[in-house]
Amino acid sequence: MAASEENSTLFPIFVLTLMALPLVPYTIVNLFGAFKKKAAKINCQCSVCVRSGKYHKSIFKRISNFSTYSNLTLVLLWVVMAVLVYYIKHISTEFQIFEPFNILGLEHGASDSEIKKAYRRLSIQYHPDKNPDPEAHSYFVEYISKAYQALTDPISRENFEKYGHPDGRQGLQMGIALPQFLLNIDGASEGILLLGIVGVCIILPLTISVIYLSRSSKYTGNYVMHSTLAAYYHLMKPSLAPSKIMDVFIKASEFMDIPVRRTDEEPLQRIFVLVRSELNLDLKNIRQEQAKFWKQHPALVKTELLLQAQLTRETAALSPTLQRDFRRVLELAPRLLEELMKMAIIPRPPVGHGWLRPAIGVVELTQSVVQAVPLSARKAAGGSSEGYAPFLQLPHFSEAVVKKIARKKVRTFQDFRDMTPDEREDLLTQVAGFSNSESHDVEMVLKMMPSVTIDITCETEGEEGIQEGDIVTMHAWVTLNRGNGLIRALPHCPYFPFDKEENFWLLLADSFSNDVWLSQKVSFMDEATAIIAVSKTIQESKEGSGASAREINVAVKEAIEKVKNGSRLVMGKFQAPADGNYNLSSFCLCDSWIGCDAKSNIKLKVMKRSRAGTRSGLTADETPAMEDGIEEDEEEEEDDYESEYSEDEEDTKETKSKGAVANGSAHNKGSGSTSDESGSEAD
């Protein structure tokens, strides 16, 4: 009975221990991450971002941000732990060490007469004949009688002195820390125990499985509907112009689920008038084009108009209900655009390459949505192939300001960035009419903008030169620098209502054939993960080449230092195509900033196979091969704006004649979409 009560008493302690083991470290990690995030100012501090209220946390916003399911669950678990601690502290059962003198209320060394006298006194108080209380009876039998026996019986006293118990050596007692009603199995407890076992072991797992399967059958791991991916895959075309990416993007099933109300018709009509010039309508047949536009599915019309309202910054015309739908569209946009990008670069049969042109178009659309810049602003103008779009992402800039500074021979965004701070301040204050504070905002944002360099090599590991059929390994170090010294930062995007992390897409592609040979997403937000990945990669690479342990440690330390200084290692493998010379390009495209992309040219020389051995047969997505070209019948109509990466035949010939880099290697020191640097050729 005592052992059973002891086990029942230990049950809350057992539950408290099980809860504390994962809960305490999880809470510490969350608090540390929250304080670290609060301490590091990685968002833009310009006056435009401050006025937008995007990063201002009011008391209601703080409560709403805190009131997530994970945080509320965390608080609830801590409340349960506090209740358990209070219960354990005030629990009625106390565990006593068997000490006969203390039980009888005597001091050590008491005489036999004092022992008998104390026993009689306690017998009157606890003996069953005198006290009918069951607890008094239990205490008399378990403690008083054994204490008296231990002090008066010679054998019991000898056992007590040797083993600490009048019954002699006590065996090891083991129990289960479960409630008392589960240990006393009777008719009622059996039913409760059975229900508990069925609920925990059968019903709960089945419920979780049904919920998971029903959700996983509808969504991918990135919380995008499978139907959306299927639509994006089939609508993606190799010659899809950047201006046509919007038509594919709005076909997402998530947008189709946004309700279309009768009350939305009038405000949508007002938005249509404001953004009509951005809808690629044929002005010669404007009435027919407008009628055709409104005959589309209402959800498609609504989604495109809301996106165009974001691009043109015409959100003031939105009604309160449309504002909620507008925020929902923008909340989904980064996730869906990332999946659309994957559909553009996914290896496709028969050659196993992705498509460069639509991939660049997706990135350009992502940049425009984040920065709220119209696609028409990307049309080539003057001496800039990228238009005036990069200027519009700067605070206080407009098309009129761009025209003013263009008169001072600042025709491209790179020209503007290359100026000294004093020259920019003089230009903005004297020519554009900016105040000192507005000029300071511009300088602050320019220091936030990333400058990317690429150091890339392609080689066959353990062999000299590249022969057809070889497995070629690409090593690329992508390095990011900012004027303010930050590596991890959120972009300046006051018109985008959600936090947006910078992401970069590294593409190894053949611009002439529109093929993407290799692609990988690069992030500078998580340094710890990047250090772990680069350490493992460098170690495996050095071990495969037979390097010593010391050489491996040195290489790993150098790589970690590079990561801490703002570099990320990107590796990939592809199978060398047929022999010949290939003019490739490496693109590092930022999805958050306009005009901060990097491009370098690589000449890959593939020789005829002379080494012994056979080619390794790899799958299409692991071994892209050279594509002969895009068929003429797949060409679509001319772009409404020319992509900053578009190249005609003359550009391609010029690239070939400039002199390529060493076989399979290039180092790009500049950044920006206008970079045309290439290295020197080496045999």
From TrEMBL:
Native organism taxonomy: Eukaryota, Viridiplantae, Streptophyta, Embryophyta, Tracheophyta
Protein name according to UniProt: DnaJ protein ERDJ2-like
SMART domains xref list: DnaJ, Sec63
Membrane topology, from the record: Multi-pass membrane protein
Protein source organism: Nicotiana tabacum (Common tobacco)
Principal cellular location given in the protein's record: endoplasmic reticulum
Keywords, comma-separated and alphabetical: Chaperone, Endoplasmic reticulum, Glycoprotein, Membrane, Protein transport, Transmembrane, Transmembrane helix, Transport
PROSITE patterns found in the cross-reference section: DNAJ_2
GO CC term, one of those recorded: Sec62/Sec63 complex
Gene3D superfamilies: 5' to 3' exonuclease, C-terminal subdomain (1.10.150.20), C2 domain (2.60.40.150), DnaJ domain (1.10.287.110), Sec63 N-terminal domain-like domain (1.10.3380.10)
Entry-linked InterPro entries: C2_domain_sf, DnaJ_domain, Ig_E-set, J_dom_sf, Sec63-dom
Keyword Cytoplasm: no
Gene Ontology molecular function: any one: protein transmembrane transporter activity
PANTHER family tied to this protein: SEC63 DOMAIN-CONTAINING, TRANSLOCATION PROTEIN SEC63 HOMOLOG
Task of the protein: Required for integral membrane and secreted preprotein translocation across the endoplasmic reticulum membrane.
Summary of subunit composition and partner proteins: Interacts with OEP61/TPR7.
Single Gene Ontology BP annotation: post-translational protein targeting to endoplasmic reticulum membrane
Subcellular location field: Endoplasmic reticulum membrane
